[in-house]
Amino acid sequence: MNPVSMSDLTAVSLLERLRAHLERDLARVESHLAGILANERTELTDDVGDHLSRTRGKRIRPILTLLTARGLGADGADAAPVAAAMECVHVASLLHDDVIDQALLRRGAETVHKRYGSDVAILMGNYLYSHAFQLLLGTVDPRPLRILTAATARMCEGEMYQIQMGDKPLNQEQYMRIITDKTAHLISVCTELGAILADADEGTVRALRGYGRELGMAYQIVDDALDYCGSGEDWGKTAGIDLREGKWTLPLIRTFNAAPESDRRALMEVWNNGRELPPVLEIVQRHSGIEQCFEIARERAQRAVAHLTELPSNEDLNLLRVLPGFVVSRTH
After folding, report:
1. How far apart are CA 254 and CA 283, in angstroms?
2. What angle, rounded to 10 degrees, do the helices at 60-71 and 14-21 form?
3. Of 233, 288, 280, which is closest to residue 258 (Cα–Cα)?
4. Alpha-carbon gap, residue 290 to 328, rounded angstroms
5. pLDDT at position 13, please?
6. Which residues have a Cβ under 8 Å from the Cβ of 312 and sit 6 or more positions away?
């Protein structure tokens, strides 16, 4: 077995390597998802499912679940239904988020709420949540279902808190609370459930939970930083979406904390009048707001890897070890 390192990514992207490594088990995940989305009883559900299949994401959450379970000795076939459930919850949350944000595009295509209406998007999200829970009912251990239902409640709490805060300035603690609840917690559940499926001891389950949480934090912080500086084909979407939607994310928070009063006033002037990216980006760059975000993300990535220190070395777990470095080096 060849060791995995960041240098491997110069020839083959890590995502491609992950998909090739997990090809058989990911095919099982896709089979579960296809069975859910291809609903013959309702033509509209089937049509929306086809749209979701054509605009699917990277399947990061199923990948994390499978890598963890396999790396700790579980059979990938047994982990596939749980991995599919993780993707169902993720997609359901995106459907609901797009309604809340009134988003028009998701991964370069029309959102479900734009194409079919908000009522269909909400119902489809609920439909996927219910199927996620059904998939977990097939596991002998009751913990996965209990953990996932608690996670969905926490994601809703994070969204409610963000709505409660509105578009007023956040501090870093408030921002971290939101991204922990909305993003990082579900990723931590993916790796936690992978460990549970492998019948790992409590210390190992706790380590994988911590790994997923830190990885999720790093991922979201980088995503929010790229929203300010991403451009061109690498980023794949228009920069400044968070700013225009009135979201105080970490680049703006760090800049506001570091800036003198004159720049703070300038930021608030733009915030209250159009929220155009160029003048805000100029101030953010002047105070190294984006660089600070990447530094915090790197620290989180290092913490993620540290959680795996006591675990054995095999290809699945080694891929988990290299993934945080890939997350903080990405451009899209």
Report:
1. 11
2. 60
3. 288
4. 12
5. 83
6. 71
CA separation for the pair 165, 246 (Å, rounded): 11
Distances (CA, A) of 322 to 205, 207, 298, 299: 19, 16, 13, 14
Contacts of 185 (CB under 8 A, 6+ apart): 151, 154, 155, 158, 213, 216
2 pLDDT more than 70: no
Average pLDDT of the segment spanning 95-118: 92
Smallest CA-to-CA distance from 29 within 1, 2, 3, 56 is with 56
Whether 239 and 231 have beta carbons less than 8 Å apart is answered as yes
Mean pLDDT of the chain: 92
Please tell me the pTM assigned to this model.
0.93
Listed by start position, the domains of the chain span: 6-329
Spatial CB neighbours of 169, under 8 Å, sequence gap ≥ 6: 248, 253, 256
Flag the least confident range among 9-13, 191-195, 303-307: 9-13
- pLDDT band of residue 10 (cuts 50, 70, 90) is very low
Residue 260: DSSP 8-state: -
- What pLDDT was estimated at residue 204? 98
CATH of region 6-329 = 1.10.600.10
Answer yes or no: are the C-beta atoms of 211 and 191 closer than 8 Å: yes
**Opening angle at CA 137, ends 25 and 88, nearest 5:** 55
